[in-house]
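Lab notes, practical 5.
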Amino acid sequence: METRLLLGLLFFIVPTVLLAVGFWVQRRRGRMANNWGAVVMVILCWVVGMMLVMRKLDQFL
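Output from the prediction step:
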């Protein structure tokens, strides 16, 4: 696999897992905070990941 593809996949997977763990930890503590900053950060990481993976996806399609 190419480095761009691996980096792009990391930009998809890692922020999503961190966001899910953050929500889970806050629920266990019994408080729900405003996490819009984390959601926006995950969306931005998805955009960067998509830009990195775009050329590789074109080869598969």
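Observations recorded by the TA: Residues 3-29 form the longest helix (27 residues). Residues 13 and 59 are 21 Å apart (CA to CA).
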